[in-house]
Write a structure and sequence with these properties.
By secondary structure, the protein is of the alpha/beta class. The protein has helices spanning 20-41, 48-99, 118-126, 157-176, 199-211, 222-232, 289-300, 315-319, 322-329, 344-347, 354-366, and strands at residues 102-112, 115-116, 133-135, 144-146, 185-192, 215-217, 239-246, 258-265, 276-279, 282-284, 307-313, 340-342, 371-379, 382-390. It is elongated and about 115 Å long.
Length: 394
Amino acid sequence: MPVDLDAIPDVAPRIRRPSTPRWLYVLASILVAGNVLTFWLWEGERTGYDFWLAASVFPFCSWGLLFSIRRFGYKCDQVWAAAWDSERALLLEQETTRGQRSAWILNNGIITQLGTGLAKLLTAIKSADSQLNVQITRAGGKPVRHSRLPGFHDQQQSQDLEEAVKTLVGQLKPVLAEIRVSVPCWLMVDCHIPGVPDADDHIVNVLTLLTDRTFHLLPSKGLTAFDYWLDEAWEQPAVLLAISAEIRATPREDEGEALAWTLLLNRDHAAFPTAVRLHRPEKSNIAALSTTLSRALLWSKTPAERVKGSWTTGKALAQGGEWSCAVEGNGLTFSMTEDNQDVDQTTGYTGKAAPWLAVNLAATLARQGGSQVAAVETDTDEIWVVGITPGNPS
């Protein structure tokens, strides 16, 4: 389940010591009241041991009893507060440790309008070469400025999807060969492909046939599934294959299509010395973006000065200045003009593929030794921030 440090109760309130002047005032009041009542109600001679016992000693002892009870309560409150804070500190440490779980990216790839491979898209992004073109949509009608994958025609979308899966399997099989067959494999499929409503089952069947591995389909989607998998499969080595795709029949202006895949392992592996780490993502909204980025940096255990760049996708992140404010507020020092990349400027917003497209691009630069962060708008008022760091940082 997600890690929510804000749900941990606050520290115990400060326990105040009994006020000495106040209790001296109470003592004086009790002594005066005791004397007045004794003199008023005493029927015998106002002399002797009994009289002064009732007039002075008894009020003083009553005050002493009350003060002792108050002092005992104060000590009990102190013990309770110390125990509360100790348990809270332990829970905070446990949840922070759980939040700092991560996985190693063993292999990843994308298919965009430019074709297969991250290098082409990275070059286009660096050169500000937009792939958004005014073209007829799949459903026909008025031309719209968008990017579009080759293939996926109305009559052959299942075949096109199968070919795309075969392409990624060709890259995954050598990697999977390095991992024991006994290691369980999980699968996250998050696809929107008109004409292929059973994309999840179709992809599972193709993967099982071509890899001879059994994949367990996760019940959730996107980065939520990755967050869930980090806890569900943490006790033993496990593989996660995340596949996401966005194919649009009637795209809107500045939208795009993409297919992305990412293969992760929740343990370090000697066969992959250059693997980078994908850390637990943090979800929030645009209003709390600075806090969300701060929490993502905590999960990745990355000092602000070691973050070398960021990748964003989504209108909320591009249109307002909240992301720049969050970056500045958390002390990140990279250049927002050169090292902050808005993926949508090149590909358009790629919907379900957007999170993993940004993650894969960030992972490519993280392999060169610079930690990255990715901020992705996945729904209205829903933004994820995740850190990607070198697998073995110096």
